[in-house]
UniProtKB/TrEMBL annotation:
TM stretches of this protein: none
Name assigned to this protein: WxcM-like domain-containing protein
InterPro entries tied to this protein: QdtA_cupin_dom (IPR008894), RmlC-like_jellyroll (IPR014710), RmlC_Cupin_sf (IPR011051)
Domain of life where this protein originates: Bacteria
């Protein structure tokens, strides 16, 4: 897998004068079953999140409120994606190093994951990640 396998996905948006609605269905809007949902909020200015890769986990990252950047890195190519629409999500495939930064005040980042939390699925050291990619 490489950075080009990661992409912004437009999610369904039902517009209504009373407020818009977006929904996400596993294996329909995202290419995986959704097994876990978590969100980041109250991220202090200048802070970074992420800084890891997953061996087998797929994710959809959504800016529910505010904005932030996701930096994707496959060891060869890096790409920075700015998320600021709650009806778009960034699909991140396995074996991609990701970092989140540039959080706006009050931003909320929701992540849909293809599996439950499993520490053994993580690369938390960049040099170990690069070594595993070249195997």
């Amino acid at each position: 897998m490489n950075v080009s396998n990661c992409k912004v996905i437009d999610l369904p948006k039902i517009q209504d004068p009373r407020g818009n609605l977006t929904f996400i269905e596993g294996n329909a809007h995202v290419p995986f079953d959704i097994r876990r949902v978590y969100y980041l909020y109250d991220v202090p200015g200048g802070a970074e999140r992420g800084g890891h890769a997953h061996k087998g986990l797929s994710q959809l990252i959504v800016a529910m409120s505010g904005s932030f950047d996701v930096v994707l890195d496959d060891g060869t190519e890096k790409r920075r994606i700015h998320l600021n629409r709650s009806y778009q999500g960034l699909y991140v495939c396995p074996m991609i190093w990701r970092e989140l930064d540039n959080f706006s005040s009050g931003s909320v980042c929701m992540v849909l994951a293809s599996n439950v939390y499993e520490e053994s699925d993580y690369f938390r050291d960049y040099s170990s990640y690069i070594a595993a990619r070249s195997e």
